[in-house]
Specification:
With about 325 residues, this protein is of the alpha/beta class. The protein contains ten helices and eleven strands. The strands form two sheets. The chain has a six-stranded mixed beta sheet, sandwiched between helices. The chain has a five-stranded mixed beta sheet with strand order 2-1-3-10-4, with helices on both faces.
């Protein structure tokens, strides 16, 4: 990863010498994904608000940096701004994975309340690391994709289960499956080559990767609603004129509101797209739902123990 970052830094330095007000942005998802569309609208808003004084060039689908590289890339100034899944940083601080604790906040209303309680603490942590939190945006609720029907956790025992964060890896282990890390662009090949047999992800990722080509069943578990956020290099942000800084933050506020609205509207549409391509879209079978709830209760307790006083503060605010 270090070699990748150094090479990209050298490339950007050559192109950036004559364009001090051009930022390079890495976005995780393909262009058709609503999160990427929101990113591009954000960039357009910044350009309009600054009358072209600040332009953000967006490169999508993790082409510039893969998920594990994004935060460090932003910190080091390899890119000035990037979008990344919040829980991807769960290994460095449990506060980053609260949104991915199963069944703690499953509905959009609950998840938005949890995000508002968590956001200030995340912003403080990032600020100390030389990073500015610009805005957050939710995914649809997470469901389970399988090749064969499942009715209980025993049906998933020993399966190679895709994990994309520390929390989903832990969840897979508690389910009796074998967590296997696979990034989104690699999902179709991972299924076709037998690297993974099942996964927990959103209908958005299911549509992006054309899940109907490699799995048959989608169980609408609504396990949790993960967040992605857009973060900027603090030095680059502070070098902007005050009016431009304000424009970036205001465009971010609009993007955050737009992200929540769009996620709510898109979830049913994306789930229907899975069904329209022949997938069996079903609620969780009762026994599986009961067993997964117990997994969630275990993970809430584990998260509280790791997160300490800050975790208690967030949960108290969320539950009030």
């Amino acid at each position: 990863m270090k070699k990748t970052l150094l090479c990209l830094a050298a490339t950007l330095a050559v192109g950036g010498a004559h364009a001090a007000t051009t930022w390079t942005m890495t976005a995780e998802q393909p262009d058709a994904n609503y999160l990427t569309q929101n990113v591009r609208q954000f960039a357009d808003d910044v350009k309009a608000a600054t009358q072209g004084a600040l332009q953000i060039n967006v490169t999508s689908n993790s082409t510039l940096l893969k998920r594990p590289e994004v935060k460090r890339g932003v910190q080091q100034g390899v890119v000035q701004i990037g979008e990344v899944l919040v829980s991807a940083m769960g290994n460095e601080d449990p506060m980053f994975e609260i949104d991915s604790v199963p069944f703690l906040a499953s509905s959009f209303d609950e998840s938005e309340k949890l995000w508002k309680a968590t956001r200030p603490l995340l912003a403080q942590r990032l600020d100390k690391q030389g990073v500015v939190l610009i805005y957050g945006s939710p995914w649809p609720p997470q469901g389970i994709y399988t090749k064969k029907p499942v009715a209980r956790l025993a049906d998933l025992a020993g399966t190679r289960f895709r994990a994309y964060s520390a929390s989903t890896s832990r969840m897979a282990s508690l389910m009796g499956a074998v967590p296997t890390t696979v990034q989104t662009p690699e999902v179709p090949q991972a299924f076709s080559t037998g690297v993974i047999d099942a996964m927990l992800t959103s209908p958005a990722t299911g549509v992006d990767t054309q899940a109907w080509d490699y799995v048959k069943y989608y169980y609408d578990a609504q396990a949790f609603i993960p967040q992605s956020f857009v973060i900027a290099n603090k030095r680059a942000f502070k070098r902007l004129p005050e009016a431009a800084q304000k424009a970036v933050l205001e465009a971010g506020a609009r993007a955050e509101a737009r992200g929540w609205k769009t996620a709510r509207a898109k979830t049913d549409e994306l789930t229907q797209t899975l069904a329209s391509h022949g997938m069996a879209v079903e609620p969780l079978p009762p026994e599986l739902a009961r067993e997964l709830k117990a997994v969630g209760e275990t993970m809430v307790k584990e998260w509280q123990a790791k997160a300490g006083a800050d975790g208690k503060q967030v949960l108290d605010a969320y539950r009030r």
